[in-house]
Amino acid sequence: MKKLDAVDFRILSLLSEDAQMAYTEVAKKSNISSGTVHMRMKKMRDMGVITGTTLNMDYARMGWKLTIFIGIYLKESASYKEVIETLKLIPEVVKIHHITGKYGVFIKVHAKDSGHFREVYQDRILTIEGIKLTESFMSLEESLNRHILFGE
């Protein structure tokens, strides 16, 4: 497997801060040619280091006022794959982690309000076969959302 070098990490750091930055600007800030940026990006996509691009959104400004984290206890540890596949079908579930510790699965959910969350939680999450019980945590504020910035 090819390895990443300092140039690759510089490109990743710049694009982590602003994914819309033009490759010519990345090149200028990295003292390399824009062709090199294109080649390095292709290499990192081919390696699976870059798996896509995303858009960060402020859900609260769009009327989705609640962010809830839910720790899920499984009836049987071996059922985590089936539970995760079913959770993926719920659009309000935006992150799913199979974890160690007291929960088997930990998820992040966005909802418009408490009534919307109740419907998602009671009618769609709690009805999933394999879930024993849950613990919910409502986010009051997100203070940090970033990627690792690799050495400068």
Classified in CATH, the superfamily of the largest domain is Lrp/AsnC effector binding domain/regulation of amino acid metabolism (RAM) domain
Q: Radius of gyration in whole Å, from Cα?
A: 20 Å
Strand-and-helix sequence, N→C?
HHHEHEEHE
CATH architecture verdict of the largest domain: 2-Layer Sandwich
- Give me the oligomer status: single chain
Spatial ordering of strands, largest sheet: 2-3-1-4
Helix content: 25-40%
Name its key features.
alpha+beta, Arc Repressor Mutant, subunit A, Alpha-Beta Plaits, 4-stranded antiparallel beta sheet, 36% helix
In summary, what is this structure?
This protein is α+β, with helices and mostly antiparallel strands and 152 residues long.
Question: Layout of helices and strands, plus pairs?
Answer:
Blueprint: H1 6-17, H2 23-30, H3 34-47, E1 66-74, H4 80-87, E2 93-98, E3 105-111, H5 114-125, E4 131-138
Antiparallel strand pairs: 1-3, 1-4, 2-3
Helix pairs in contact: 1-2, 2-3
